[in-house]
Design goal:
The protein is of the alpha/beta class and about 950 residues long. The chain is built from 37 helices and 25 strands. Helix 1 packs across helix 2 and helix 28 crosses helix 29. It binds a DNA duplex (9 and 16 nucleotides) through helix 24, helix 26, strand 18, helix 31 and helix 32. Pfam families: 5_3_exonuc (PF01367), 5_3_exonuc_N (PF02739), DNA_pol_A (PF00476), DNA_pol_A_exo1 (PF01612).
DNA sequence: ACGCTCACG
DNA sequence: GACGTACGTGAGCGTA
């Protein structure tokens, strides 16, 4: 019954993207009950298709129809002009997962559904319209996009589906002032701010049409531009000729594409009722399913809708099956996966490497997963022989793709805006890819999703998440790599063993994502995830890759000096003790102090050993030199081993710099943590330790700049607890600890003694930590009763603080979590515990909103910083909780300080209006010691 | 592997 | 009435 497309045929071309966006914006967010999948746009899309189908009767009915979609964001137009559509807003988060479903919906209606990588839907429609016209048929384009108006004429018309208004030649003339053939000329001149087509500055559609009508076409106009009377207009056309010609190329649709299908493939077919009903049921659309079933004259299938998330069993589990994972060994096999990724719009990615330090390790292989249970591993650099093979052990194993070939094939998907790349701790993989020249974006991260939802409940490593949320224990890596000295790197793992392990990681990640993504809304942490967690990934990746220059010679000299002093102290200590012992063993030190010397005040740890912490030794030091010497020795040993020695090992041989790694999901409160090495605890409190910072230097011609928030936690406390006296003090720029002391002890500010101020300062910090009489007493070394008196006095003067504390604890007891000002949730599972646990949990709950809000503030500043300083010769290097460190060219220091301070001081805006202004102190110098 | 101690905010 | 406590981290060392 197939008829050849030709005279008498009528082709309908539906602009799929326009349908999707209209559907998305017309409907409120709607989620599928069973799993929370957003389906609002799909529902709207289905409605529009249904209305379309219903309206297709009578003599004007189409014989052929197709819905045409965009695919990928990179087209030949981006090659012509990299700014094409560059200012287009990113696709909304909850729309992206619905895109593949709109394809499914179209197929469910048995309507042809077409898209071609690298081309816009407009080009496909242009080509089809020309083919149909040339074959003698009629064409109707269902779209209101003015870019398509150039196609109108000779049997091609547009139909605005919203206004139900047909647009023919006259309609185009009305809109553009020229015939359809000249529409591109007008667009080339007028440009298009939506698509970021430049055009000619200062010329709009009206003027453009005037000029084209006068000179006939664009080429003639540009050739004869000298003749234009208005001087400004003339000059614009002469100056911007290249830009105008480029614009024409951008707006000109491609009517001669090679299509992998023919018009005949687009013939109108009746829907297959079962397929359509199956799709609607799967989407859990009750009303729409019933309506369409009625229209089709069939019984509506029962759509089961769960009443709450808890009642729903886990989405029917596809069992984990390592045998199903594919090993991808050549380009053809990889291409199959890439095609599937484009079709899906998302992919879970995992990299395997030769180690854990992403600045050093080599890429060994890549895993991909597009659907639960369906994953592959692409081995790239596995060695042929195991490590203990003495002969030819560096030969590559057979059957692996060439690294560059693989990365070149994957790069388009990994960099495409249209494909979401899903990872578990994506910062790691993104840094690896970055070193291989691939800029992975956009990304989702299951670790960060878990962190946003479950901070405080458990850690967010893959093993934990898989066990907890998928009920599946991942294949352990240990048996593959071995332990200790005989451990091998992943490139020595035989490929057949690597495949199940590596592919499973991607499979797990995808399943976690499918589960977590819809839950972000339910748990109301989407904004936290999207503004405070995820955007930090590229920012931190860049900072970590920047690294900071560390001068090994400086450290080395200090290390030698420390060693000498330690040797001297060691000898003295042996003499004082009367025998040799291990100075660094607390148990031995305790034995000497509390048994051999018989000193009082010793306590034992829960393991039964003598305890010798610094504060105890400090008290003893007044009685006996031994304790003081131990303290001195310990300080030096700490500085030497942790800083001057270990830090040198962390200098990267390629960059000469130290590259820390930040954990985004480590600290429950939202703070970052720095590891390998920890650069957030470089000494500063003692003069000797502080000198370590002299080794953190700027390159020649550059300067280290440090900006830190002044008293940010106390300011946040003043805001949250609404303490007017504190707010006023910050407003007036008064010394906040002195003010506290003055209020508490009725001492005028100008008679304040350092001792009284010190006590008030301890109380201020104590408040932030969830103060207790015992803790304050120990900190200030005063009797417990006296400390309690201070606290009572404090609460009398600042009753808002006590209220904040009580309110916070009762909120935590009721809800099981506390919140920062920006909505970050910190779970408090122990808050209702009995016994000593309870005290910990209470204090943590009191502290978390304050510490967490401060953490949120600096995160916001960091996310905004790269754009703010983009045109400055400056790099952001480190974050130390309330401080950001930069390396800046000497001439740009003041600029950088001005801009970065602005970003930091206003970081809470516009989400939160703080009653207290945030203040930022700045310093600069050749090294970190000078900058602080 | 774990506890102790100590470096930072 | 006793208990055991300042909040949040990471690293190096000694000891099991």
């Amino acid at each position: 019954m197939t008829t050849q497309f030709g005279k008498g045929c009528h082709l309908h071309l539906i602009d799929g993207s326009a349908f999707i966006f209209r559907a998305y914006h017309a409907l409120p967010p709607l989620t599928r009950k069973s799993d929370g999948m957003p389906v609002g746009a799909v529902s709207g899309f289905v409605n529009m298709l249904q209305r379309y189908v219903e309206g297709n009767s009578g003599p004007d009915a189409p014989t052929h129809v197709a819905v045409i979609f965009d695919k990928g964001s990179h087209t030949f137009r981006n090659d012509l002009y990299d700014q094409y559509k560059a200012n287009r807003e990113a696709m909304p988060e909850d729309l992206r997962p619905q895109i593949p479903l709109t394809r499914d919906a179209t197929r469910a209606f048995n309507i042809a559904c077409e898209e071609i990588e690298g081309f816009e839907a407009d080009d496909i429609m242009a080509t089809l319209a020309h083919q149909a016209r040339d074959a003698g048929g009629r064409v109707t384009i269902l779209s209101s996009d003015k870019d398509l108006m150039q196609l109108v004429g000779d049997g091609v018309e547009m139909l605005d589906p919203m206004k139900n208004k047909r647009i023919d030649r006259d309609g185009v003339l009305e809109k553009f002032g020229v015939a359809p053939e000249r529409v591109v000329d007008v667009q080339a001149l007028a440009g298009d701010s939506v698509d970021n087509v430049p055009g000619a500055p200062g010329i709009g559609i009206k003027t453009a049409a005037l000029l084209i009508n006068e000179y006939g076409d664009l080429e003639s106009l540009l050739d004869r531009a000298q003749e234009i009377k208005q001087p400004k207009r003339r000059q614009t056309l002469i100056d911007h000729r290249a830009q105008i010609e480029l614009s024409k190329q951008l707006v000109q649709l491609d009517c001669d594409m090679e299509l992998p299908f023919t018009l005949d493939d687009l013939e109108v077919k009746d829907p297959v009722v079962d397929d359509l009903m199956a799709f609607l049921t799967e989407m859990e659309f009750r009303t729409v399913t019933k309506r369409i079933a009625d229209k089709l004259g069939v019984e509506a299938p029962v759509v089961e809708v769960a009443t709450s998330a808890e009642e729903v069993a886990a989405p029917e589990a596809v069992p984990f099956d390592a045998d199903k994972y594919e090993c991808v060994r050549d380009a053809a096999a990889l291409q199959v996966w890439i095609d599937r990724i484009w079709e899906r719009g998302y992919v879970a990615v995992d990299t395997e490497t030769t180690g854990l330090n992403e600045m050093v390790v080599d890429l060994v292989g890549i895993s991909l997963c597009v659907e639960a249970g369906q994953a592959c591993y692409v081995p790239l650099a596995h060695k042929a022989a195991p490590a203990d093979d003495l002969f030819g052990s560096d030969d590559m194993a057979d059957g692996q793709m060439d690294m560059d070939t693989c990365l070149d094939l994957l790069r388009p998907v990994l960099e495409s805006d249209a494909v979401m790349k899903i990872g578990q701790n994506m910062k790691y993989d993104a840094k690896i890819f970055a070193r291989y020249g691939v800029a992975v974006a956009p990304i989702d991260d299951t670790m960060l999703m878990s962190y946003a939802m479950n901070a405080g409940l458990h850690n967010h490593g893959m093993d934990t998440l898989s066990d907890r949320y998928l009920g599946h224990t991942p294949i352990p890596i240990k048996p593959l790599l071995g332990t200790g000295k005989s451990a091998i790197t992943f490139d020595r793992v035989p490929i057949d063993q690597a495949v199940p392990y590596a592919a499973e990681d991607a499979d797990i990640t995808l399943r976690l994502w499918q589960q977590f993504k819809p839950q972000l809304h339910v748990k109301q942490v989407t904004t936290v995830y999207e503004t405070l967690e995820r955007p930090l990934v590229p920012v931190l990746a860049q900072m970590e890759r920047n690294g900071i220059k560390v001068d090994r010679d400086t450290l080395s000299r200090m290390s030698n000096a420390f060693a000498q002093k330690m040797a001297g102290l060691e000898a003295e200590l042996y003499q004082l003790a009367g025998h040799e012992f291990n100075v660094q063993a607390p148990a031995q030190v305790g034995k000497i102090l509390f048994e051999e010397m018989g000193l009082e005040g010793g306590k034992k740890t829960k393991t039964g050993q003598w305890s010798t912490p610094a504060d105890v030794l400090e008290d003893l030091a007044t009685e006996h030199d031994f304790a003081g010497r131990i303290l001195d020795y310990r300080q030096l040993a700490k500085l030497k081993s942790t800083y001057t020695d270990a830090l040198q090992e962390h200098v990267n041989p390629d960059t000469g710099r130290v590259h820390t790694s930040y954990s985004i999901a480590g600290a429950n409160t939202g703070r970052l943590a720095s590891t390998d090495p920890n650069l957030q605890n470089i000494p500063i409190r003692t003069e000797e330790g502080r000198r370590i910072r002299e080794a953190f230097v700027a390159e020649p011609g550059k300067v280290i700049v440090a900006l830190d928030y002044s008293q940010i936690e106390l300011r946040i406390l003043a805001h949250i607890a609404g303490i007017d006296a504190l707010k006023q003090a910050f407003l007036d720029g008064i010394d906040i600890h002195a003010m506290t002391a003055s209020e508490m002890f009725d001492v005028p500010l100008d008679e304040m003694t350092p001792e009284v101020r010190r006590q008030a300062k301890a109380i201020n910090f104590g408040v932030i930590y969830g103060i207790s009489g015992f803790g304050l007493a120990r900190n200030l070394r005063i009797p417990r009763g006296e400390a309690q008196g201070f606290i009572d006095r404090y609460f009398e003067r600042f009753p808002g603080i006590r209220k904040y504390m009580d309110d916070t604890v009762s909120f935590a007891k009721e809800h099981g979590y506390v919140q920062t000002l920006f909505g970050r949730k910190i779970n408090t599972p122990e808050i209702n515990a009995k016994g000593p646990h309870a005290g910990f949990a209470k204090r943590a709950a009191i502290n978390a909103p304050i510490q967490g809000t401060a953490a949120d503030v600096i995160r916001r500043a960091m996310v905004r910083m790269p754009d703010a300083i983009a045109d400055m010769p400056a790099k952001m290097l480190l974050q130390v909780h309330d401080e950001l460190l930069f390396e800046v060219e000497t001439g740009a220091v003041e600029d950088l300080i001005g801009t970065a301070r602005e970003v930091m001081e206003n970081a809470s805006d516009p989400a939160v209006r703080l009653d207290v202004k945030l203040a930022v102190d700045a310093g600069q110098g050749a090294n970190w010691a000078e900058a602080h």
